[in-house]
Automatic annotation (TrEMBL):
It comes from Enterococcus lactis. This is Permease prefix domain 1-containing protein. It comes from the Bacteria. The chain crosses the membrane at residues 102-121, 127-147, 183-209, 215-235. Signal peptide: none annotated. The keyword Nucleus does not apply. InterPro entries: Perm_prefix_1. Keywords: Membrane, Transmembrane, Transmembrane helix. The keyword Transmembrane applies.
């Protein structure tokens, strides 16, 4: 609970003190504590609950705008000592970023699959099924892109200009090193599938097959390859966000 209180205090650095601000802070703390206890009741561990509460909370800028309150210019001491990122926040960031990475990669995959389905069904005389597959696949992909974009923006926002302690940096380096093997597999397999995706096209030409079937195979194969490359690269990027910065976010 001290982690949540300290985080809330760091958000109000530079905000002029008043009864209205103190009431706002008390209300926010009560809401955050209630959310924390709800998550604990759902079976989450303490670090995961704290990280989820903090990442869900976000920024107080909009609340301050509604109250017509502006932050004071931070002192040199405050600028040189930004609030530190807690390990629980970093753990939650990596978990949420991994989920967002999967959504981005899935969006690309569903886009490719929608074109593959469209070409395949149209070539077999089921044009309605082909169009339905195209519309549904693209709509699903757009939903994934929007959701992942909002999530990544929110995650980066609450970690902006925060100091990275040695403990968090060491954990990030350990996770990045542990992920290297998975990243290498994703990259090699993804590139291999992208190259192999040309085979269905050439096969349909050489064996006088329907070109639509070859094109469908191309989209399925290249979509799977790009899925592996994007997902692996974004997960690795979430760790490098910490390891490539020696001081602050």
């Amino acid at each position: 609970m001290d982690t949540i209180r300290n985080y809330l205090e760091s958000l109000f650095i530079g905000v002029p003190r008043s009864n209205e601000i103190e009431k706002l802070k008390a209300d926010l703390l009560a809401n955050m504590e209630d959310h924390y206890h709800e998550l604990m009741g759902e079976g989450k561990n303490e670090q995961e609950a704290i990280g989820t509460v903090i990442s869900t909370f976000g920024s107080i800028d909009e609340l301050l705008e509604e109250l017509d309150v502006k932050k004071e210019n931070p002192s040199p001491e405050t600028e040189s000592n930004p609030a530190s990122i807690y390990l629980s926040e970093a753990e939650n960031y990596w978990k949420e970023y991994r989920a967002a990475s999967l959504q981005v990669a899935s969006g690309v995959l569903f886009t490719c699959l929608s074109f593959a389905g469209f070409l395949f069904f149209c070539s077999t005389g089921y044009a309605f099924m082909g169009v339905s597959c195209l519309i549904f696949g693209i709509a699903l992909a757009v939903g994934f892109f929007i959701a992942s974009g909002m999530k990544i923006t929110r995650l980066n926002h609450f970690l902006y200009n925060r100091k990275i302690p040695e403990k968090v940096l060491a954990e990030a380096k350990e996770k990045e090193e542990a992920y290297q093997r998975s990243f290498g597999f994703s990259l090699i397999a993804g590139i291999g599938l992208c190259i192999f995706s040309l085979f269905p096209l050439f096969a349909s030409i050489l064996w006088y097959m329907d070109g639509s079937i070859g094109a469908s195979g191309f989209f399925v194969t290249v979509g799977t390859g790009v899925f592996l490359i994007i997902n692996g690269s974004l997960v690795r990027h979430s760790y490098r966000q910490f390891t490539q910065s020696t001081y602050s976010w």
